[in-house]
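Sequence only, no structure available. Ideas?
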Amino acid sequence: MTQYLFPERLLSETIEERKTYFKEYTAAHPAFEQAYNDLLDKIYNCTDNSVILVYGPTGAGKSKLIQKVNEKIYKDYLEQLKQDPGMFSTLMVEAIPPDSGNFDWKDFYYRALVEANEPAIDYKVNVEKYLSREKKVKEDSRAILKRSLENVLIYRKPKAFIIDEAQHITLTTSARNLKNQVNIIKSLANITKVPIVLCGTYDILTFRDLQGQTIRRGRDTHIKRYQAQNKDDLEAFINVLFAFQKHLPLQKEPDLVSHWDYFYSRTLGSVGTLKDWIYLTYSICLSNNPDLPSMEMDYFKKYEISAARALKMLSEAKLGEKRVENTTNSEENKLYLELGLTEEEAYFADKPAKKEIKKRNKLVGERNPRRDSVGVDELEEAQ
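Reply:
I predicted one. C-alpha cells follow.
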C-alpha cells in the first residue's frame, strides 16, 4: 500500500483544496531556519529604534520568511493581544514601486493605515493646528498621513513594522532624494520606538551603504541561495526537492530528485523559485486534468525559466552576493584603519621582537651544560 506524506483524503477533494495544500506547504531547510531564527532573535532583542535589513536573491523565500515570522510573533503574544485588543503583534505592508519618478510616500502611508484598519483615513486632520494657534505645524496631506501612521505605531505597540519589497523605496531620481529616503525610515524608527524590518532584494543594501550609523551590518539577516559547489548546500537543495516531490497530492509520486541538476539550473538554488515553478506546473496540469495521476518532466519543461533568464538571474544574484562580501570586508578594513588596528602586526609594532635562539646539535658523548661542584664535595670524592 502506498504511503503518502500528504493527507490521503486530498486525492478525492476538489482541485482548489489540493492546490491550496501544496501552496501553503513549507519545507523546512537549513537556510530558511537559520534566517528565521536570526530574524526573530533580532526583533525580540534589538533596541527600540532599530532598522533591520532582510535581503537575498530573487526567489530565495524572503516573503515566506517574514510571513512565518509574523505568524510566530502573533502566537507568542496571543495572551497579551487578548488582554489588550488594541495592540498589534506586527504591522506588515508592501512597498509599491512608483509609476514614475520618486517613491510615493503618501501612497505608502495610506496603504499602511489601511493594513492597520485605521478608521476615517480620508478625513484625517491636523489636530495640533486647532488646539494651539501658536504652533506652526505642517498641514499637507502627506504629513497628516505620516503623523497618523506614527500614532498607530506608538499606541498600537506592534513588535515590528515589517515592510516587504523595500527595495522599491530606493527608487528615486537623485542621490539626494535617496539619502532622504534613509532619513525618513530613521525618523519613523526614532519617533515610534518600533523596530522596522526592511525586506527586499540586495538593492536595500543601499540603506546600509548611505548611512551606516542608522543601519548596521549586525542587524542584517541574509537569506541565501544554495551553492552547487558546496556539498552541504547541494544536499540541502536536493532534500527540499524531495520534500516537494513527496507532498504533491498525486496518485503516483513523480520522480523529481533524479533530475535535481535540471531543477537547480533553472532556480539557481533558490527554494522560493523552485516552489513557485513546481506549484505553477502542478496547478495548470491539475486544472487541465482533475484526475491527473502523476507528473512527467515534460510538464515542467513547458513552464520552465528559460536559460537566458536564468543566466540574468544568476548574474544579479552573484552581483548582490559580491556586494555583501565587499561591503563587509571594506567596513572591517576601514574600521581597523581608523582605529589604528590595521593588522595584528601593528598591535605588536612597539614591542621588541624576541631573538630566536637556535639549538646546536650535540656531539656523541657530550654532556649537557652544568656547573661542576667545587670545594668540600670534590675533596670528599677524592678520599
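The chain has three domains: 8-25+247-305, 30-222, 312-345.
Hope that gets you unstuck.
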